[in-house]
Structures are given as C-alpha cells and as structure tokens.
Predict the 3D structure of the following.
Amino acid sequence: MTHRAVLLILTLALVFGLAATATAADTVPRMDKDTLKSRLGDPNLTIFDVRSNSDWKGSEYKLPGARHLDPNAVDAAIGSLDPEAEYVLYCA
C-alpha cells in the first residue's frame, strides 16, 4: 500500500451492537492511521469502505481486505453484524 493511500484514510472505529441510532461524535472510538495500518489482516477486525458506489468503483486506493458498504445502507447492515466483533468504517 502506498504512503499516499495511508494518508488518505479517515478512520472511525465502531463497535456495532448498539441500537441503530445516532451516536454523539465524542462517544465513537477512533483509530488513527498507524494503528489501523498495524492491524491490516487482523482476522478479528472487519474494515468497511463507506464511499459512494461510484467513488469505490473508480478508486485505485483501497485498503487491503476492505469490504465496500454503501453509506446509505449502514443502518440496515448493523442488524446483521456480530455485536461482539470490531469494525472500522473509513472513507478516503
């Protein structure tokens, strides 16, 4: 992964399991880019890229192993995720 790609990453670490309601920004755990970089490939971490479909498809910069999650479908996806697992949402 290029240094440029790492610099483009804005990460938010979320643990789903809470109700699908808005959470105050100061209560959402954050993960800095260096921590995320060190955790790439961690089987206990699922990374979701929440860019729009067109941005996702048109980008050459994607984190290894990241899965695309339509930003308009996040609320619907929460119910199908393991509440004990760890997830990162990012938009580059």
Summary: The chain has one domain: 3-90. The first strand starts at residue 11 and ends at 14. The beta strands are 11-14, 45-49, 67-68, 86-90.
